[in-house]
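Re-running Aspartyl/glutamyl-tRNA(Asn/Gln) amidotransferase subunit C to confirm reproducibility after the cluster update. Everything else is unchanged from the original entry.
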Amino acid sequence: MSIDIETARKVAHLARIKVEEDRLPALAGEFNTILGFIEQLNEVNIDGVEPMTSVTPMRLKRRVDEVTDGGYPEKILKNAPDAREGFFAVPKVVE
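Result of re-run:
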């Protein structure tokens, strides 16, 4: 697959990138170089290779998903400009 100048112009428009007309041939060349690298990757034999989510076969540590107050609500509310009854207080904006 090859990218021509018109396709490069369209990609730049879709990406909302302003590209001057004299830079479009260079942009098309860069796109073609990227596509060439992708074609090289398609030549790699991956039969029998399982998909990976990480380069190390480790499982992330997980914690119990439970709602807590953080353990120190006093410290958190100390930074609030206005706190009442253990909660952040905000000005009323809807009548």
